[in-house]
Amino acid sequence: METLKLYGFNNLTKTLSFNIYDICYAEKETSKQEYIEYIDEQYNSERLTKILSDVAHMIGASILNIARQDYEPQGASVTILVSEGELEEDQLDISCNDGVIKESVVGHLDKSHITVHTYPESHPDQGISTFRVDIEVSTCGEISPLKALNFLIDSFDSDIINLDFKVRGFTRDINGNKHFNDHKITSIQNYIADKTLSQYNVIDVNVYQENIFHSKMILKDLNIEHYLFDVKPNDFSVEKRKEIEERLHNEMLEIYYGRNMPK
After folding, report:
1. Is residue 2 part of a domain?
2. What is the pLDDT of residues 106-117, one digit of tens each?
3. Is 103 helix (H, G, I), strand (E, B) or coil?
Protein backbone atom coordinates (compact mmCIF):
# COMPACT_ATOMS: atom_id res chain seq x y z
CA MET A 1 0.00 0.00 0.00
CA GLU A 2 1.35 3.40 -0.94
CA THR A 3 2.49 5.47 2.03
CA LEU A 4 -0.24 7.88 3.10
CA LYS A 5 0.52 11.57 3.40
CA LEU A 6 -1.35 12.43 6.55
CA TYR A 7 -2.77 15.54 8.08
CA GLY A 8 -1.52 15.41 11.65
CA PHE A 9 -0.89 12.25 13.66
CA ASN A 10 -1.82 8.70 12.61
CA ASN A 11 -4.32 7.86 15.36
CA LEU A 12 -5.52 4.49 14.11
CA THR A 13 -5.61 1.94 16.92
CA LYS A 14 -4.49 -1.59 15.93
CA THR A 15 -5.09 -4.37 18.42
CA LEU A 16 -3.78 -7.92 18.23
CA SER A 17 -5.11 -10.27 20.89
CA PHE A 18 -4.95 -14.01 21.22
CA ASN A 19 -5.33 -16.97 23.53
CA ILE A 20 -2.74 -19.73 23.48
CA TYR A 21 -3.55 -23.11 25.01
CA ASP A 22 -1.09 -25.83 26.03
CA ILE A 23 -2.70 -29.16 26.99
CA CYS A 24 -1.17 -31.80 29.29
CA TYR A 25 -2.13 -35.14 30.82
CA ALA A 26 -1.28 -35.38 34.54
CA GLU A 27 -3.42 -38.05 36.19
CA LYS A 28 -2.38 -37.94 39.85
CA GLU A 29 -3.05 -34.95 42.11
CA THR A 30 0.67 -34.71 42.85
CA SER A 31 1.40 -34.70 39.11
CA LYS A 32 -1.14 -31.92 38.53
CA GLN A 33 0.55 -29.79 41.18
CA GLU A 34 3.97 -30.57 39.76
CA TYR A 35 2.75 -29.56 36.29
CA ILE A 36 1.53 -26.20 37.59
CA GLU A 37 4.86 -25.68 39.34
CA TYR A 38 6.69 -26.63 36.14
CA ILE A 39 4.64 -24.17 34.08
CA ASP A 40 5.21 -21.48 36.69
CA GLU A 41 8.95 -21.99 36.34
CA GLN A 42 8.89 -22.42 32.56
CA TYR A 43 7.09 -19.09 32.13
CA ASN A 44 8.61 -17.31 35.10
CA SER A 45 9.13 -13.60 35.61
CA GLU A 46 12.42 -13.47 33.77
CA ARG A 47 11.13 -15.12 30.63
CA LEU A 48 7.78 -13.27 30.51
CA THR A 49 9.44 -9.91 31.08
CA LYS A 50 12.02 -10.70 28.39
CA ILE A 51 9.24 -11.60 25.95
CA LEU A 52 7.36 -8.40 26.73
CA SER A 53 10.47 -6.27 26.35
CA ASP A 54 11.36 -7.93 23.04
CA VAL A 55 7.85 -7.26 21.74
CA ALA A 56 8.11 -3.57 22.65
CA HIS A 57 11.37 -3.21 20.73
CA MET A 58 10.10 -5.34 17.85
CA ILE A 59 7.16 -3.03 17.15
CA GLY A 60 9.41 0.04 17.29
CA ALA A 61 8.99 1.16 20.90
CA SER A 62 11.64 1.98 23.52
CA ILE A 63 11.22 1.07 27.19
CA LEU A 64 11.11 4.04 29.59
CA ASN A 65 10.34 2.42 32.92
CA ILE A 66 9.58 -0.98 34.44
CA ALA A 67 7.56 -1.27 37.66
CA ARG A 68 6.91 -4.67 39.26
CA GLN A 69 4.81 -5.91 42.14
CA ASP A 70 4.42 -9.42 43.59
CA TYR A 71 1.17 -10.62 45.18
CA GLU A 72 0.39 -13.32 47.75
CA PRO A 73 -0.39 -16.16 47.51
CA GLN A 74 0.49 -15.93 43.82
CA GLY A 75 0.59 -13.62 40.84
CA ALA A 76 2.27 -10.33 40.07
CA SER A 77 2.02 -7.25 37.86
CA VAL A 78 4.56 -5.51 35.66
CA THR A 79 4.08 -2.14 33.98
CA ILE A 80 6.45 -1.08 31.21
CA LEU A 81 6.38 2.48 29.91
CA VAL A 82 7.83 2.97 26.44
CA SER A 83 8.10 5.59 23.71
CA GLU A 84 8.39 5.27 19.94
CA GLY A 85 11.79 6.96 19.75
CA GLU A 86 15.31 5.93 20.70
CA LEU A 87 16.41 6.90 24.20
CA GLU A 88 19.74 7.57 25.83
CA GLU A 89 20.64 5.23 28.68
CA ASP A 90 20.55 8.01 31.26
CA GLN A 91 16.90 8.70 30.39
CA LEU A 92 15.76 5.35 31.78
CA ASP A 93 14.17 5.26 35.21
CA ILE A 94 15.07 1.98 36.92
CA SER A 95 13.92 3.00 40.40
CA CYS A 96 11.04 0.50 40.37
CA ASN A 97 12.83 -2.45 38.79
CA ASP A 98 12.68 -4.70 41.85
CA GLY A 99 10.55 -7.80 42.24
CA VAL A 100 9.68 -10.91 40.31
CA ILE A 101 6.66 -11.70 38.18
CA LYS A 102 4.97 -15.11 38.12
CA GLU A 103 1.71 -15.04 36.25
CA SER A 104 0.94 -11.71 34.59
CA VAL A 105 2.65 -8.93 32.75
CA VAL A 106 1.22 -5.56 31.75
CA GLY A 107 3.17 -3.21 29.53
CA HIS A 108 2.05 0.34 28.74
CA LEU A 109 3.34 2.23 25.72
CA ASP A 110 3.10 6.03 25.52
CA LYS A 111 0.12 5.64 23.16
CA SER A 112 -0.48 1.90 23.48
CA HIS A 113 -0.32 -1.12 25.77
CA ILE A 114 0.86 -4.72 25.97
CA THR A 115 -0.61 -7.29 28.36
CA VAL A 116 0.22 -10.92 29.09
CA HIS A 117 -1.66 -13.11 31.60
CA THR A 118 -1.38 -16.83 32.32
CA TYR A 119 -4.06 -19.23 33.58
CA PRO A 120 -3.18 -22.81 34.65
CA GLU A 121 -6.14 -25.11 35.41
CA SER A 122 -7.07 -28.80 35.45
CA HIS A 123 -10.05 -31.10 34.94
CA PRO A 124 -11.31 -32.41 38.32
CA ASP A 125 -11.27 -36.11 37.40
CA GLN A 126 -9.94 -36.77 33.88
CA GLY A 127 -6.26 -35.93 34.30
CA ILE A 128 -6.33 -33.07 31.79
CA SER A 129 -4.48 -29.87 32.71
CA THR A 130 -4.59 -26.74 30.57
CA PHE A 131 -2.28 -23.75 30.51
CA ARG A 132 -3.73 -20.64 28.86
CA VAL A 133 -1.87 -17.47 27.93
CA ASP A 134 -3.81 -14.31 27.03
CA ILE A 135 -1.86 -11.68 25.12
CA GLU A 136 -2.93 -8.28 23.81
CA VAL A 137 -0.77 -5.82 21.92
CA SER A 138 -2.52 -2.54 21.11
CA THR A 139 -0.72 0.23 19.24
CA CYS A 140 -1.57 3.69 18.04
CA GLY A 141 0.27 5.43 15.21
CA GLU A 142 2.48 3.88 12.57
CA ILE A 143 3.76 0.94 14.62
CA SER A 144 1.90 -2.36 14.18
CA PRO A 145 1.51 -5.28 16.62
CA LEU A 146 1.54 -7.72 13.68
CA LYS A 147 5.31 -7.32 13.55
CA ALA A 148 5.56 -9.36 16.75
CA LEU A 149 3.01 -12.06 15.84
CA ASN A 150 5.39 -14.86 14.88
CA PHE A 151 7.73 -14.09 17.76
CA LEU A 152 4.88 -14.39 20.27
CA ILE A 153 3.58 -17.64 18.76
CA ASP A 154 7.08 -19.13 18.86
CA SER A 155 7.56 -18.03 22.49
CA PHE A 156 4.97 -20.48 23.83
CA ASP A 157 4.04 -24.15 23.42
CA SER A 158 0.78 -23.86 21.52
CA ASP A 159 -1.76 -26.60 20.85
CA ILE A 160 -4.56 -24.13 20.10
CA ILE A 161 -4.33 -20.44 19.18
CA ASN A 162 -7.23 -17.99 18.87
CA LEU A 163 -6.18 -14.78 17.12
CA ASP A 164 -8.01 -11.47 16.72
CA PHE A 165 -6.83 -8.34 14.93
CA LYS A 166 -8.88 -5.20 14.58
CA VAL A 167 -8.33 -1.61 13.51
CA ARG A 168 -10.32 1.20 15.13
CA GLY A 169 -10.64 4.93 14.59
CA PHE A 170 -9.52 6.80 11.49
CA THR A 171 -6.78 9.08 10.30
CA ARG A 172 -6.92 11.86 7.71
CA ASP A 173 -4.74 12.46 4.70
CA ILE A 174 -3.60 15.92 3.62
CA ASN A 175 -6.80 16.32 1.58
CA GLY A 176 -8.99 15.65 4.61
CA ASN A 177 -10.13 12.20 3.51
CA LYS A 178 -10.60 9.62 6.28
CA HIS A 179 -8.65 6.34 6.21
CA PHE A 180 -9.89 3.51 8.41
CA ASN A 181 -6.84 1.31 7.83
CA ASP A 182 -3.30 2.14 6.77
CA HIS A 183 -2.18 -1.22 5.39
CA LYS A 184 -3.72 -3.98 3.31
CA ILE A 185 -4.80 -7.12 5.15
CA THR A 186 -7.17 -9.90 4.11
CA SER A 187 -6.29 -12.44 6.81
CA ILE A 188 -4.08 -12.77 9.87
CA GLN A 189 -2.67 -15.84 8.11
CA ASN A 190 -0.85 -13.46 5.74
CA TYR A 191 1.44 -12.56 8.66
CA ILE A 192 2.05 -16.06 10.03
CA ALA A 193 5.17 -17.94 8.94
CA ASP A 194 4.55 -20.76 6.41
CA LYS A 195 6.36 -23.26 8.66
CA THR A 196 3.93 -22.50 11.49
CA LEU A 197 0.86 -22.66 9.25
CA SER A 198 1.91 -26.08 7.96
CA GLN A 199 1.61 -27.49 11.50
CA TYR A 200 -1.95 -26.27 12.14
CA ASN A 201 -5.46 -26.48 10.77
CA VAL A 202 -6.69 -22.88 10.50
CA ILE A 203 -10.15 -21.33 10.18
CA ASP A 204 -10.79 -17.65 9.38
CA VAL A 205 -13.80 -15.54 10.30
CA ASN A 206 -13.25 -12.03 8.89
CA VAL A 207 -15.50 -8.97 8.70
CA TYR A 208 -13.66 -6.88 6.13
CA GLN A 209 -15.93 -3.84 6.16
CA GLU A 210 -15.38 -3.54 9.92
CA ASN A 211 -11.61 -4.24 9.80
CA ILE A 212 -12.08 -7.26 12.09
CA PHE A 213 -10.00 -10.37 11.44
CA HIS A 214 -10.15 -13.67 13.34
CA SER A 215 -8.16 -16.88 12.89
CA LYS A 216 -8.17 -19.97 15.07
CA MET A 217 -5.55 -22.69 14.86
CA ILE A 218 -5.27 -26.26 16.17
CA LEU A 219 -2.31 -28.62 15.82
CA LYS A 220 -2.77 -31.25 13.11
CA ASP A 221 -0.88 -34.06 14.84
CA LEU A 222 -1.35 -35.36 18.37
CA ASN A 223 1.66 -37.34 19.61
CA ILE A 224 0.72 -38.63 23.05
CA GLU A 225 4.37 -38.62 24.17
CA HIS A 226 4.38 -34.80 24.00
CA TYR A 227 1.35 -34.52 26.32
CA LEU A 228 2.25 -36.85 29.17
CA PHE A 229 3.68 -35.23 32.30
CA ASP A 230 6.11 -37.23 34.43
CA VAL A 231 5.14 -40.52 32.72
CA LYS A 232 5.86 -42.30 29.44
CA PRO A 233 3.52 -43.98 26.92
CA ASN A 234 4.87 -47.41 27.85
CA ASP A 235 3.66 -46.87 31.42
CA PHE A 236 0.12 -47.46 30.12
CA SER A 237 -1.61 -50.29 28.33
CA VAL A 238 -2.61 -49.86 24.70
CA GLU A 239 -6.24 -49.40 25.77
CA LYS A 240 -5.30 -46.76 28.35
CA ARG A 241 -3.16 -44.85 25.84
CA LYS A 242 -6.09 -44.81 23.43
CA GLU A 243 -8.37 -43.50 26.18
CA ILE A 244 -5.88 -40.74 27.07
CA GLU A 245 -5.54 -39.74 23.41
CA GLU A 246 -9.32 -39.48 23.13
CA ARG A 247 -9.49 -37.31 26.25
CA LEU A 248 -6.74 -35.00 24.95
CA HIS A 249 -8.31 -34.79 21.50
CA ASN A 250 -11.74 -34.08 22.95
CA GLU A 251 -10.32 -31.34 25.20
CA MET A 252 -8.61 -29.68 22.25
CA LEU A 253 -11.72 -29.84 20.06
CA GLU A 254 -13.91 -28.34 22.80
CA ILE A 255 -11.53 -25.42 23.25
CA TYR A 256 -11.11 -24.98 19.48
CA TYR A 257 -14.84 -24.92 18.73
CA GLY A 258 -15.83 -23.21 21.98
CA ARG A 259 -18.41 -25.76 23.08
CA ASN A 260 -18.71 -29.04 24.96
CA MET A 261 -18.61 -32.09 22.71
CA PRO A 262 -21.22 -34.90 23.01
CA LYS A 263 -20.11 -37.63 25.40
Report:
1. no
2. 655 555 677 777
3. coil
